[in-house]
Write a structure and sequence with these properties.
Elements (H helix, E strand, L loop, with lengths): L16 H12 L3 H8 L6 H7 L11 E9 L2 E8 L5 H14 L4 E4 L3 E9 L4 H10 L1 H10 L2 H5 L3 E10 L10 E9 L6 H19 L2 E7 L7 E9 L10 H17 L1 H21 L4 H12 L9 E6 L2 E9 L13 H10 L4 H23 L5 H16 L5 H12 L4 H10 L2 H8 L4
Antiparallel strand pairs: 1-2, 3-8, 4-6, 4-7, 5-6, 8-10, 9-10
Helix pairs in contact: 4-13, 6-8, 9-10, 9-13, 10-11, 10-13, 14-15, 14-16, 15-16
The structure holds (R)-mevalonate.
């Protein structure tokens, strides 16, 4: 596959699905098997599903869409997104198109540094216990690294040990909490299993060093040493829309950002919008999206108040957006090699490393947020949402084929996007049209 892959596929959304697939097949030299995978006929087989989880009784599908137009650090990305909510894919593509005209997203990401936590109790004096642990740091690291020699050989593995003494929670057990953090570079893996093995593996040594008793040994999903950041800088002239000048749209976005910065009630919804984009790519690419969610929201609270993961402000004739959040992703391990759809999604996204992938994720989150705030700060989101929701309503009412779009248009024009209204329109058609609209025979 060549570097000439572009994410700017004009008119893609207007093509029938088969033509979209044909275009993708040409761009990515997809095999007939890949195409069958996308069509769903080669989707996750029950036999594999049965190996992945317990009590498997089947598989579960979601629509897979492609976010278009995304450019990050000068490289184009087509973003596979698995999501049930209408407008998420369209919003990312729309936002990415504007940002692309402004030079694209600039992103960066930390090394894959994760935290394994070991909870120590009955250790005696906290200062003494801390000193003892730190004095044995090299021994703890050597033991930690003995569990994953291959990762160490590739330059990863346990890198540091930290100790935290935390005030005891209220109640009769007055001992302050002593928590040992082992910092582990998990490289291309998300690393959960690896970190848990290390945390469990070094626990007896930590008990020996402190004379204490260890309870929990587990990774932390607050992966704040593994952050990903994206920014964009959009000239106001590119923002003009809805018969409003760019200044007005930008002001609406900046006001939305101020609202989220001041109010956790708003910040939660703001971040939900960010995660609409990130979760969709996470699901398509086989990531542990619960871990990403947990990390994002814990990070959003780091200053003691829940805050937005992304912010927007005006600067010298530009709207500037920034996002920063933990991004514990993997390109090896987990379902990545097992799930055929995940492999295909990774082939489409073309990230060469997990850090590159995490930059794409951050840019997608910022793009999604931009699209939401742009509408919220100006005309509101219902108009756009309703147009897409109308298709779902049309299908629910029984429309099939071309009639889904036709009926959706009629509903939007009627200003009444409801199943009863859709049924009323279908009932008003001639017998022949109604048969065509619902895919039935006369
Ligand atoms: C809906 O899924 C997401 C939004 O509520 C996000 C936001 O309010 O910023 C539109």
């Amino acid at each position: 596959m060549s570097e000439t892959v572009t994410s700017r596929l004009a008119g893609f959304h207007k093509l029938p699905m088969d033509e979209r697939l044909a275009q993708l097949a040409r761009m990515f030299r997809l095999s007939p098997g890949d195409l069958e995978q996308l069509r769903g006929t080669e989707a996750l087989q029950p036999v594999l599903a049965n190996q992945m989880i317990e009590n498997a009784v089947g598989t579960f599908s979601l629509p897979l869409g492609l976010g278009l137009n995304l450019q990050v650090n000068g490289r184009d990305y087509l973003v596979p997104m698995a999501v049930e909510e209408p407008s998420v894919v369209a919003a990312v593509s729309f936002a990415a198109k504007i940002v692309r005209e402004a030079g694209g997203f600039i992103a960066e990401a930390d090394e894959s540094m994760m935290i394994g936590q070991i909870q120590v109790t009955r250790y005696g004096d906290p200062t003494e216990a801390t000193e003892k642990i730190l004095a044995h740091k090299e021994q703890i690291l050597a033991l930690a690294n003995s569990f994953h020699p291959a990762m160490v050989a590739r330059g990863g593995g346990a890198k540091d040990v930290e100790v935290r003494v935390l005030p005891a929670p209220e109640g009769p057990r007055g001992e302050p909490l002593l928590v040992v953090h082992v910092l582990i570079d998990t490289q291309e893996a998300m690393g959960a299993n690896l970190i848990n093995t290390v945390a469990e593996g070094v626990a007896p040594l930590v008990e020996q060093i402190t004379g204490g008793k260890v309870y929990l040994r587990i990774l932390s999903n607050l992966a704040d040493r593994r952050l990903s950041r994206a920014t964009c800088r959009i000239p106001l002239s590119l923002l003009a829309d809805f018969e409003m000048p760019g200044e007005v749209i930008a002001e609406g976005i900046a006001q939305a950002s101020r609202f989220a910065e001041a109010d956790p009630y708003r910040a939660a919804t703001h971040n939900k919008g960010v995660m609409n984009g990130i979760d969709s790519v996470a699901i398509a690419t086989g990531q542990d999206w619960r871990a990403i969610e947990a990390g994002a929201h814990a990070f959003a609270c780091r200053g003691g108040q829940y805050r937005p993961l992304s912010t927007w402000y005006l600067e010298e004739g530009h709207l500037v957006g920034r996002i920063e959040l933990p991004m514990a992703l993997g390109m090896v391990g987990g379902p990545i090699k097992v799930h055929p759809g995940v492999q295909l999604a990774l082939k489409l996204v073309r990230a060469n490393s997990v850090r590159e992938l995490s930059m794409v994720f951050a840019a997608v989150g910022l793009a999604q947020n931009f699209a939401a705030l742009r509408a919220l700060g100006s005309i509101g989101i219902q108009k756009g949402h309703m147009a897409l929701h109308a298709r779902c309503v049309a299908v629910t009412a029984g429309a099939r084929g071309d009639w889904v779009e036709k009926l959706a248009d009629l509903l939007v024009k009627a200003g009444h996007v409801k199943v009863e209204k859709a049924r009323e329109i279908l009932a008003s058609l001639s017998a022949e049209d109604a048969a065509a609209a619902t895919g039935t025979t006369l």
